[in-house]
Structures are given as structure tokens and as C-alpha cells.
Amino acid sequence: MNPRYRPLVATTIIFIVAYVICVSQYPGMWSTRVLGNFLTDNAFLGIAAVGATFVIISGGIDLSVGAVIGLTGVITAIMITRFGIHPMVVFPVVLVLAALFGAAMGAVIHFLRVPPFIVTLAGMFLARGLASVLTQDSIPIDHDFYRLVSSLYYKLPGGGRLSAIGLTMLLTFAVCGFIAHKTRFGSYVYAIGGNGVSAALMGVPVGQTTVAIYALSSFLGGLSGIVYSLYTSAGYPLAAVGIELDSIAAVVIGGTLLTGGYGFVFGTLIGVMLQGLVQTYIVFDGTLSSWWTKIAIGFLLFMFILLQNLVFNSQGPSRLRKGPA
Amino acid sequence: MTETSRAVLEATGITKTFGNHTALRNVDIAFRAGEVHALLGENGAGKSTLIKILTGAYTLEQGTIRLDGEPVSFSTPLQAQALGIGTVYQEVNLLPNMTVMDNLFIGRQPRRFGLVDKRTMERQAREILAKYGLDIDVRAELSTYSVAVQQIIAIARAVELSGKVLILDEPTASLDAAEVEKLFDIVRRLRDRGLAIVFITHFLDQVFALSDRVTVLRNGQLIGTRPISDINRTELVKMMLGKDLALHHGDILAEESEVGETLMSFRGYGLKGKVQPLDLDIHKGEVIGVAGLLGSGRTEMARVLFGIDAADSGRLSIDGRETTVRSPRDAVELGFGFCPEDRKLDGIFGDLSVRENIVIAMQARLGWFRALSRDEQLEIAGNYIEALDIRTASAELPVKLLSGGNQQKVILARWLATDPRFLILDEPTRGIDVGAHAEIVRMISRLREDGLALVVISSELDEVVSYSSRVVVMRDRAIAAELHGADINVQRIVETIAGNETAPAEAHP
Fold first, then answer.
1. Which of A8, B311, B398, B459 falls 20 to 30 Å from A69 in CA-CA distance?
2. Highest mean pLDDT among A25-39, A104-118, A143-157, B315-329
3. What digits encode the pLDDT tens for the residues B57-79?
């Protein structure tokens, strides 16, 4: 087997084993109802994590996603409740704004050669600060359209509900998986993650691609913000604090190499589901503190980084070549 | 290969300066279709600067470049590539994490309905590689193939994209003999297809095996371009090292060799892929000069002796006792010192003061818990600044502000402070002015008189001759010969480097 599939396969096996263990303890977890809730509850995290997957495959990092979720939620809420604009108009506007925000970060990263960590950290403070200036409080959204969307679902066999936002997440994974593996843009993302200098010498438009990667990440952050506002029926400036780190964890657990070049969008879905599974288990148990989720995630993350080290270091030195002498 | 075949790429009057350093001075060179043109020169000769100008990595400041007779200018490698100049670097410059076909096509993948058409790409990739006698799974990741295969893929990509001029920058450096032969076959086939091929290497055998013409650069100047049939090895080495042998008759012969008792002896000491097993005895109060071209294994040997790259075969005994050197720490423990070739990269700590640079090896030897007090440090540093005549305003000046020669002396002082028995100096006079040259040479002789054993690597043959009690000549990563007594003269060294032994070289003692 190609060693680059190993982390992905490992994650999938761990997910299945973990699910079997959960079901053996709480047979109630074996139902489409639980699965449906799974998807709904983790939709915003999943969408944000898809963006993080692209960023991390390209060798970068995006710390601003959580703040972008908060900011887009607040802007959406204000535009709908204070200005009375219809959500169907608000959504595209907010998504374009988010994408522009990401594009600006990408441009700074590429053209001014500032490390992505710093740029997106600044982006995080900017977005979170702006959201808090706009409002200190949670703004409830009471709109017919929101009620309509929240009530929409596809009834799964067994009584489970695939909600509109759960479906949005699955669609995001499908579309972005397609982009990553079937388009030129996707191949450029992998190329930059493999070796940016070589990629540039080989004719990959590194600048454009970098801008597009961060624009995509923030666009998905914006989408995630909209989903979050649908999920909570409110816009809150301190929403989704730390989600950027959860999404990075999901990406790495899903088999993407943190240093770039290798990874799968599908793996991130498993990474998100694994996090959701741990949460659901804790809910079923009822006695454990919800902080055990973090401990479990920390443990998994550590394990996967060790696993990746083993896999990629056994592949020989050719991976280490960087740039012309 | 006749004089009438047309020049595809022609550069005239190329001059390039960095600050006040002239890297290339008025160089003219022309590459013809259907010809392999070797480009030779030692470190700092200006080869890589010239290549970078021809491939668009550096911008052209002075001079003209003509492609097919038309003046061209390009400011990025991409533009040069599009105009027909493709380059393959020593370190394969591809994407190890992507498939072979991606590597061949990235930036111009065939598309269907806006999506990458993998089926067409796979078919075309197979067709391209078939021309190079390569039948491999193009959907596999590049990193699953050997460097030799990666090299061929890089060549295929460069030829597909550019197709007029192919620049091969030390393509054989990490290949074994069979792989080199295969690569040469491919290069010859490309030459016969009418490409102009520029071949950069340090291996003279390969120059004679493959090229039609050869150009030598030295110190940024064009020394000459000759058809390969008109030149022999010795002449080529002379051109590279810049030795007018007639002037060097009657050089001072070195001191009686093998003074003092045996300090250490290396037996079968080597490291696979770097240095072939070598036998070497080193005596107290002796300077062993090491001569050889770049890539002959001279620096690799120094690194193995000092334990930077630990030897994987052979034995070492010091004062008759068996011992091992697995790391520079072990080496320092045994009283070794090493001044590396690239001071700036491996030697000095530019931002630290002269004092700190001098005491650092001594402190490392003492360990964490016996810190030298500031006064002790100042005294030690002061002693060496005086003894070696280091020109610095104070011991507290950052060492990067000193001249090259004085930086070299600081590194020397660092090792002398550890009271070594054995010092390895790699190119101690590189990049320092002429006055400082003489001083370093004098210092080497003085250290020898003090009973130190030294190994000095240098491409300045006059210097090697003046201070060595014995000269070791390296070729193809092995000791080619050891020269003693009257054999230590520039003429003899050049001949040995070139591999034309006029008289049988003396075997190892």
C-alpha cells in the first residue's frame, strides 16, 4: 500500500473501532438519529476544517477561522435584524466579504513574505475585535427564513434527520474533495506544499494559488459562520472561539501532514466525525466532564503525529530535498 | 560539431558584480546545437553565477544574450524556460510528494471540461518517458523512485518544455557508475536530436567521456574554450587551477617528511558514498597538504576525520590505542580541531564577539558546570589576539565585522585554545586578501614547529607546496597518491590530479 494512505486508513479504522466500542456500551448510539445529530452538531466545525485542509496541505496555517465565524455571524445577524435585509441577499454578501478578507491575508503572506502563522494571527485579532466592536451581546435572529431552514430536513431510514446544515457540510466536503483532487488548482495546492521553490520553477502560479487558498479558507469560515448562525439562531461575537484549533486537529487526525504536501479532504471528514463521536459518547455517559473530549482529542492528535513521523521518515530522504543548491 | 554549426545560445560581455565583488568579468560563451559543452571551474570561478544569468535566476546587468541570433532578456527562470532554456539541477528540483505524471505536466496539465484529464495525462506521460527508455508507473509518487530515475524525469520535463538548450548542473553527483552511463546515453541521444547541452561537473573523466567542447572559468574570468580533442587532462587541470608551470621550477622543497613520532593512524577509514576507505598515518610536527579538485572528496575526507559524518568502516588508533570518533564531540575530546571551508556558514558565530568566538570550543570541552569567568575569557582571548595578531578594535567586537583573514584567525584561535594535538584546516586561505594569505601560511608552519599535526586542504597549490611535509592527492573520493620530498612540486601535483602518472606514484608507506 502506498504509505501516504496509511494515516488515512489508520484514522478510518480507529473511527470504526471506536464506534463499535461505543455501540457495545450504549447500543442506543447505533441509530441514524445519532448520526443525523452528529452531522448537524459538527457542521460548522466540518466546514471550517475543509478550509484548514487546503491551507495545511499547502504548508500553511490559518488561525483566523474561528474569528471569521464569529464576525460573519455577527454581520449576518445585524444585516438581518437591524437592516431587515433578506437572508438570501445577506449570505452572498457575507461570503464575498469573508473571501476578500482571506484573499488579503493570502496576498500579505505571499507578496510580503510574512509567515502565515503571524498573518492569520493578526487576522484573528482583527476579525474578533471587529465583531466585538459591532456588538457585545448575542443578537437573536428571528426570521421566517431561519425558521424555515431550521425545520428543513431529510428523513433518514430509522428516524434520523439529515438537517439542511448537516447536508451543507457533506456537500462542502464533496465539492472541495473534487476541487482538491480533480482540478489544476488542487494540484497546485499539493505542489506548493511539496516544495514551493520547485513549484514556482515548474510554472505553478504560486502567488495566485496562495491568495486563492486563504480566500477559500475564509470563504468556508464565512459559510461556517452562516451555518453557526442557523444552528444557534443568533449572531455572537465570541462564537466558535478556538474552532481553528479544533479544525487543525481534525485535519491532522484525518491524515494530512502538518508540514504540507500530503493529505485528503475525506480524511478531515473522518477527523471531524471522530471528535463528534467522543462528544456523543460523553453525552451518553452523562457522568464525564465534557472536557474529557479535549483530553481524548489531545491523545489522538499526539498519536497521529507519531504515526506520521514513522510513515514519512521511513520513506527515505528524497522527501527532504528542498530548493536548488 | 564542426565550426560551422550554429550557436543556439550566445552570451557576450557578461559581467556581474555583487557589491564590490566581481563574480563575472566580461565573459563570452556560445553553445551550439548538437553539442555537449562542458563548463568547468573551481569554487568561486563564476560557473553558477553564469548559469543563473543564463537561466534567468539572476538578472543580466551587462552584456547580451542571444538565442538563435535574437537578443533576449528574461527575469525569471520561467521566462527562460518558455524561450527554450531548460535546467536540471543537481538536487532534483521536482515535487517528491506528487505523481510522476504531475511532475511532468504541472503548470500545463491537459484538461477536459475544466478538470485535469488524468487519462490523457497518463498516456502522454508514458509516451514521453518511453523516449527515454523509462517504463514506469507514472501514477506513482515521484519519491518512490531512485534519484537516477528522478533525474531522467527532470530532464524529460526540461526538454519537453524548452527543447533548445538543456543545462545539466552536476547531474551525476549522486549517481553510481551504471546510472551515470545510462544518463550519458540519454544526453547523447538528446545531443543527436540537435539540442545544445551545457554540462557542469567536477569529474574530469566525465568531461572527456561526454563533451565535445569545454570552457574553463576561473575567478570570474573566461580562461578559454577548446574542442575536447585538442586538450589533455593536465592542460585542463592547469587551466582550472591557473598554474603556469614554467614559473614554478625550483620551488622551495618541503622539510624532511615524517618528522616526529606517529600520532595517529587511520586504517581502511571511510564512509560509503562519501570517501573510499583510506590509510593515513599522521605524525607529530607534520603538515599533510591535501590537493584535489572540487568534488574529489577532500572536504568529505575532512568531515569524516573530524566525525561530522562518522566513518562506517576502518579503525583509528591514537598513540597506539584504538579509539573511535563518532561525532565532533568525540573528536574534540581527543584533541582534534577543525576549521571548515565555509567560515560564514559553519565556522563563526557572526553576531557573537571575538572573545565569545574564541572561548566557545574551550567552554564546550570543559562542560556545562565549569563556566569560564569573564576575566578568564578575556585573558584567553587577549592572549590569542596578540599571539595571532588578530586585528580587531576590541575583544568585544562582533566577529562578523572583521575581515576574512582575521575571522579565519579567530577560528584558529578557538581551536588552539583547546590545546589540540591535531588540526584540520579546510581551505584556510579562501576569500582572504594576499597579505593575510602569507600570514596564515606562516602560522601553519609555526604550529608545525610547535609539534602539532596538521591536515591542510587547499586548492592553492603554491601554498600546499610551501608548507607541506607530505602531500596527499585526492581523486574520485579516494587518495590517488601520496607525494614526498622532491615530488612535492606544483607540476607533479597537477599531473597527479589529472591522473597522468608520468612516474609511478609512491604507494602508501
1. A8
2. A104-118
3. 888 888 899 988 889 888 888 88
Residue B16 is placed in which grid cell? Answer: 556581474
Percent of chain B with pLDDT over 70: 91
Q: State how far residue B81 is from chain A, nearest Cα, in angstroms.
A: 9
Which of B231, B256, B273 terminates a domain? The answer is: B231
Residue by residue, DSSP assigns A196-239 as HHHHHHTT--HHHHHHHHHHHHHHHHHHHHHHHHHHHTEE-TTT
Helix, strand, coil percentages for chain A (3-state, nearest 5): 75, 5, 20
Enter the C-alpha cell of residue B126: 508514458
Taking only residues 73 to 92 of chain B, the set having a beta carbon closer than 8 angstroms to any beta carbon of chain A reads 77-78, 81, 89-92
Q: Which of A150-154, B151-155, B173-177 is least confident?
A: B173-177
Window 107-126 of B: residues touching A by CB (8 A cutoff) are 107-109, 111, 114-116
Give the HSE-up count for residue B121: Cα atoms under 13 Å, Cβ half-sphere: 23
Residue that finishes a domain, picked among B384, B400, B419: B419
User: Looking only at Cα atoms, what is the longest distance across chain B?
Assistant: 81
How many secondary structure helices (H) and strands (E) does chain B include? 16, 22
Lowest-pLDDT range of A2-11, B280-289, B423-432: A2-11
Show residues of chain B in contact with A188, CB under 8 Å: 106
- pTM to 2 decimals? 0.76
The verdict on residue B104 lying in a domain is no
Q: Do the strands B321-323 and B313-318 form a parallel or antiparallel pair, or are they unpaired? A: antiparallel
Does the beta-carbon distance from A2 to B102 stay under 8 Å? no
| A3-314 classified as CATH 1.10.3470 | yes
Return the closest-CA partner of residue B406 out of B341, B468, B348, B337. Answer: B348
Same domain, B271 and B297: yes
* B91 contacts A325? CB cut-off 8 A: yes
Based on the domain organization, do B46 and B88 belong to the same domain? yes
Picking from B96, B233, B175, the residue whose alpha carbon sits closest to that of residue A312 is: B96
| Host H or E run for residue B422 | strand B422-426
What gap in Å lies between CA B505 and CA B291, rounded to an integer? 15
User: In chain A, how long is the greatest CA-to-CA distance?
Assistant: 63
